[in-house]
Amino acid sequence: MTLFAGVSVAQTVTLTPGQMRQAATLYLQNGQVDAAVVLARALLDRDPHDDVAAIILADATSARGDHATALDIATRLYRGTESRDTKYIAARIAAREHAALEHGTRAQIWLRRARQAAPSAAAATDVAQDFAYIRARNPLQVQLRFGVSPTTNLNNGSSQSTQQILFFGVPFELYLSPDAEALSGLSLTAGIGLRYAVSGGPRATTFVTFDSSGGTYLLSDSAKAQAPGVRGRDFSSVSARLGLRHERATEDGGSLGFGLDFGRVWNNGQPNYDAFGLTAERRFAIGEGHDITANVRAERQLSRRDLPQRETLVFSVRDSRKRNNGDQFALSATLMRGVSDNAGYNYLGYAFGAEYQIAEPVLGGRIAVSADVGRRDYTKGPLDPVARADRFLALGADYTFVGVDFYGFSPIVSVTRQINRSNSGRYDTDALNFGFDLRTNF
Considering the entire predicted model, what is its pTM? Predict the structure, then answer.
């Protein structure tokens, strides 16, 4: 192939494709972008599948400031190549060009594609660092949630078969309906959370928030036999909330946040209640790797089914620490109050919790365990023999497969046991859940 070397030449020089790639690379490194573009286009005219030439052309076009064209070149290269290394480079270029065009969310999507094709652990780490950099500057934050969980109690049903009530002061033992007892099956959940920064500065930001989640169930064969005619979707639920949140950094290195939100909850496709909530949060930075967070939330729920309204107030304190070996643990205490004309939602309660996460991988995975214990005391209802009192215990363990990475997500297997012991048989519950989820690594 014959090209003119330099701006002004006295003779014709013949270059091989390999020499042309090398020359184009040198031109690009030396800032001679136009010469690099000429050579790269000549190589692509010769072979439209010349990956190296396409990479050079995308880089040179970007250096010219034509980010839209550079993005188009990188996108076509990613889709057209079979080479994993080329896909990695093309995805990194596409992410860079989206960032230059201020398309933060699309840049993050391309970085996840680059992570999937990363040729080494070091390259994967570079992608994570770029992702964090772009996320910090992207006004839109997106969180996706999805999971599958076999469960022994998908309907929060009773572990008892009877309930005692009073008629004119005389106790009667009533049998619970089959669908009021625990039903086993498979839980399917999905959700999305969005936060968009509408204003902010170096120390304070205001966000518009949106969160939606939903879940449905598939009944096991034993559950179908226990409750004929009942379907898993009878226990399905969907929620959606829109809110406004303000966060501000404090002089002590902590933060202060306020939020309000409103939304609706549907059960089995029908509106159940509307909710309006207020939240305040204060995080204190005690020392290196040591935070204490206080949170208070008030919520009013207005029934869409002509039932009494409900109000809840929850106050919690959480002490979180990171040990010298990288392990993390947290202790928490919670006070809760429910107010309603319905005795089943009129209560005073408390809970204590503990969490521990082991930093060092165990058999290629990361382990986290948790425990919560508490009590709720309810107002005595008109048919209750005594005022209802519940004691509850929840135990959980998560195992994250850190060595398995799918577009920057790792699978998590979890197991939880939730036990509620009540002096009213209807509310005696016991559930064992096994979960599978995906969680982002950055």
Answer: 0.85
